[in-house]
Amino acid sequence: MRKMFSPFLVLVVVASFVLAACGGGKSDGPVVGNAEAGKKLYESSTLGSNSAEGCVSCHNYDEAAGEADKAPYTAGTAARAESAVAGMSAEEYIHESIITPDAYVVEGFKEGDMYQKWQAELSEQQIADLVAYLLTEK
Ligand code: HEC
Question: pLDDT per residue over 98-108, tens digit each?
Answer without folding.
Answer: 999 999 999 99
